[in-house]
Write a structure and sequence with these properties.
The complex is a heterodimer. Chain A is α+β, with helices and mostly antiparallel strands. Chain A is 40% helix and 23% strand. By secondary structure, chain B is mainly α. Chain B has two domains: 77 residues, no CATH class; 513 residues, Up-down Bundle (Cytochrome C Oxidase, Chain A), CATH 1.20.210.10. Chain B contains 17 helices and two strands. The chains are: A alpha+beta, B mainly alpha.
Chain lengths: 247, 605
């Protein structure tokens, strides 16, 4: 019995170490393109580090159990029906388990939940606004100077931008994967999201820089994506001045 | 076979009469939404009456003598039969058939997604196939465990001779085929491409007449679910054998009981949300038409108020079946029985107050994210208790590594992955990126397929000898179990990566960047589909050609294993007396039931 415990704990430690190493070596996370994406990566990493510990706790148990407690199969079902020990309950372990899971849950609620939420929301004000309107199946971007673009979303780097999102026909969803930010475009109900891009980039070379509709909107849903470019502020000013309708 | 054909005849006749009369009165085409609704109402009455409600209910209403037929043998399965075991098998067979259809649709989708660009179908066809796969699989997952195993096992496990309302039980089952037909026929009417969630305004746009039949299908499915739940609750409350106290109920009965509470109290909200869509389509109301003051978020709230608990309707009975199976297969008492019951009931309670975590990006009030984040993460606590029960039971047990136990191990692993990834979606900061991506697709397949359908497989392999009196080939079943576990995970785990890297869901096409991961997923899916299909074929073969086994091949302690396989018509020749806990392994001083075989006491009913 004691040896079973020891094998479990040792295997747990080994698998956890391997899992964490794998997570950091082959990180699935994209390079963050915005302050919001940095928060995403941070919370995602905390959850994964903890999640691997929990996953390996159970996985190592399953492996130890399958190896140590299995009864050899002689092909006959009815014979050899020896019972295991009579352990219907153990209040001590149940209470410990409850304490640990409640503590974990509280940590998740406070740190990855509320702390992450408040950091994601950040300051609910922007240095400039860009209006994004979704319709079947294209995006209409209106910049502050009145310039309208439908072929790409160009935004200045290191600038907190308020996106005013709206839809004319059905539900759409404003999503730039590199920004890790998303809000639905709801007909009859304007929505808002604040994003600060932190890296200059071009969707032509990085597929995560695309303004993709993320809410099923019919036939052209998959193709409802336009290029996103993050450019220096000066370039942005020149760009919007060159747009039709821009003043 | 005759009643089914009669039902189809009267159902079609009813549909045509209802639809054409309405069309004449309203001067519209017979494909008009209102005509379709009225046709469906008349059609379902015709179908139910034709299939057997006339003999079982109708004649009594007319003052005629009851003429419920009592067919024998295989014919029972095509009649309006009231035996709960027959109804359980009817549910199982129907839903496995739907499962194969919906699974084939999944294969078609994976074929299209294997490579970027258009392979075999365009975006419209893809959206339809995706919507159909979604609603059919939701129907399968909602109804199978409760309809098939709840019906078959619960009365036997509590020592009753049948459900409390046998005819209502039959009615509940016969509502199911029309629901499947309504879903399958939806694309004939017109566009049905808004997904199973049917978010307006996409689902209410002109031309989306397929939604009308979708709504009709939801009504039939929902009614069936509510009737089944009502019946099950009444049965467990009133029909337990003498001595079967609440503290001696097998854990599967507890899980079915908890699920039935959710079904009975919440299914109406699904019906209510889609009936508003229907009214917008046919009655000119403006619930979801923003230009006229409607609000789309109202739909999302109402829809998820049912559809999140629906996840637990799919998973809780699977939890019960897996804990039950583990207990018997490792020959140890269920660890912390009372704590597990508490965990199940706490999930039932909490699942009512978490729905808006599906709406973190919907544009609802920002402050609402806080409370729903808290309630959602709180569910990990009772779910943890379920894992504790499983782990504590397996510890030091005598593991017989047959298919049911292997699949249970797979279930634990899958459901754990589903639970852990659920936390990423409960935490708002991560959900905002991951919402509506392949991360979500992978997550809900790990919970609903890895939790729900794997629970179904566990139950299928564990209770197969009880239902048929025969055994499947155990070597093949072991291979099947390992292959399903591995292929299921290789099919879905890569999708987490795709979601994090920005692949949105419900798309027929995607950037080339995601080609590799999709190819890998598709190949795994094809293999998984093949293995699942072959496994079902093997089980079907074994019902006829498998070796005969005794009444209790697993040496289990609960009541269903103490009677013959398959069980006799009224389950027990003598009413059992319950004198102890159901799981008395390793404790020779306690037995679960006195089956009364040595007594001369006759059943009194």
């Amino acid at each position: 019995m004691k040896r079973d415990w020891v094998s479990w704990v040792v295997l747990w430690a080994v698998l956890t170490a391997l899992g964490e190493a794998a997570f950091f070596m082959f990180s699935p996370l994209p390079i963050p393109g915005s302050e919001e994406a940095e928060v995403f990566n941070w919370i995602f990493s905390i959850l994964t580090v903890l999640g691997i510990v929990v996953l390996m706790f159970v996985l190592s148990f399953l492996i130890v159990a399958a190896v140590k407690f299995r009864v050899p199969d002689d092909g006959n079902l009815d014979d050899d029906l020896e019972d295991g020990p009579y352990i219907p309950d153990n209040r001590h372990i149940v209470h410990k388990w409850e304490q640990v899971t409640i503590a974990l849950t509280l940590f998740l609620i406070i740190v990855t939940g509320f702390l992450g939420l408040s950091r994601f929301n950040g300051e609910q004000s922007g240095e400039m606004a860009i209006a994004v309107q979704g319709q079947q199946w294209s995006w209409v971007i209106t910049h502050e100077n009145g310039g309208v673009a439908t072929d790409e979303l160009v935004v200045p780097v290191d600038t907190r931008i308020r996106y005013d999102v709206s839809a004319t026909d059905v539900l759409h969803s404003f999503w730039v994967p590199a920004f890790a930010a998303k809000v639905d475009a709801v007909p009859g109900r304007p929505t808002v999201i604040y994003v600060t891009a932190i890296e200059e980039a071009d969707g032509a070379t990085n597929v995560l820089y695309r303004l993709q509709c993320a809410e099923l909107c019919g036939l052209g849903h998959a193709a409802m994506a336009i290029n996103v470019r993050v450019v220096p502020r000066a370039e942005y000013q020149a760009y919007i001045a060159s747009l039709e309708g821009g003043s | 076979m005759f009643p089914v054909i009669r039902g189809i005849f009267w159902g079609l006749l009813g549909y045509l009469v209802g639809a054409y009369l309405t069309a004449i009165f309203t001067s519209q085409a017979a494909g008009d939404p209102l005509a379709v609704v009225m046709g469906s109402v008349a059609g379902i009455m015709g179908w139910l009456m034709g299939v057997g409600m006339w003999e079982s209910f109708g004649r009594q209403w007319m003052g005629l003598p009851d003429a419920t037929p009592d067919p024998k043998g295989w014919k029972r399965y095509f009649h309006f039969t009231v035996d709960h075991k027959v109804i359980g098998i009817q549910y199982l067979m129907t839903l496995l058939l739907v499962f194969v259809v919906a699974g084939s649709l999944a294969m078609v989708m994976r074929w299209e997604l294997m490579r970027p660009g258009q392979d075999i179908m365009g975006a419209l066809a893809y959206n339809r196939v995706m919507s159909m796969h979604g609603i059919l699989m939701v129907g399968v997952a909602v109804a199978t465990m409760m309809g098939a195993f709840g019906n078959y096992l619960v009365p036997i496990m509590i020592g009753a001779d049948d459900m409390a309302f046998p005819r209502l039980n039959a009615l509940g089952f016969w509502l199911l085929p029309p629901a499947a037909v309504a879903f399958l026929a939806a694309p004939i009417l017109g566009s049905f491409e808004a997904g199973w969630t049917a978010y307006p305004p996409l689902s209410t746009l002109a031309g989306s007449d397929g939604t009308v039949l979708f709504v009709v299908g939801v009504f039939f499915l929902g009614l069936s679910s509510i009737l089944g739940a009502l019946n099950l609750l009444t049965t467990v409350i009133t029909m337990r054998a003498p001595g079967m106290t609440w503290g001696r109920l097998p854990i599967f009965v507890w899980s079915a009981f908890g699920t039935a509470i959710l079904q009975l109290l919440l299914t109406q909200f699904f019906a209510a949300s889609v009936v508003l869509i229907l009214l917008d389509r046919v009655a000119g109301t403006n619930f979801f038409i923003p230009e006229a003051g409607g609000d789309i978020l109202l739909y999302e709230h109402m829809f998820w108020f049912y559809s999140h608990p629906a996840v637990y309707i799919m998973v809780i009975p699977a939890i019960g079946a897996v804990l039950e199976t583990i207990t018997h297969m490792v020959r140890k008492p269920l660890f912390a029985y009372r704590t597990s019951v508490f965990g199940i009931m706490m999930i039932v309670g909490l699942s009512n107050v978490v729905w808006a975590h599906h709406m973190f990006t919907s544009g609802m009030a920002n402050w609402l994210r806080g409370p729903f984040l808290v309630t959602t993460e709180m569910i990990s606590e009772p779910t943890g208790l379920i894992f504790l029960a499983a782990i504590g039971t397996i510890w030091q047990g005598k593991l017989r590594f047959q298919a049911p136990l292997i699949l249970s191990f797979g279930w634990i692993f899958n459901f754990l992955i589903g639970g852990i990834t659920g936390i990423y979606l409960a935490a708002v900061a991560t959900d905002i990126h991951l919402h509506d991506t392949y991360f979500v697709v992978a997550h809900f397949h790990h919970t609903i397929m890895g939790g729900g359908i794997f629970g179904l497989l566990v139950a299928l392999f564990f209770w197969f000898p009880k239902m048929t009196g025969r055994m499947y080939n155990q070597r093949l079943a072991k291979w099947f179990s390992w292959l399903v576990i591995i292929l299921f995970n290789t099919a879905f785990i890569p999708m987490y990566w795709a979601g994090v890297q920005g692949l949105n869901r419900r798309v027929a096409d995607y950037p080339d960047f995601y080609a590799g991961v999709n190819m890998f997923s598709s190949i795994s899916s094809f293999l998984l589909g093949t293995v699942l299909f072959l496994g079902l074929v093997h089980l079907a073969w074994s019902t006829k050609y498998g070796p005969k086994v005794g009444n209790n091949p697993w040496g289990a302690t609960t009541l269903e294993w103490q009677i013959s396989s398959p069980p006799p018509a009224h389950n027990f020749h003598v009413l059992p007396k319950i004198i102890g806990h159901p799981y008395n392994y390793g404790n020779p001083n306690e037995v679960h039931a006195d089956m009364g075989e040595h007594q001369q006491e006759e059943v009194s009913h």
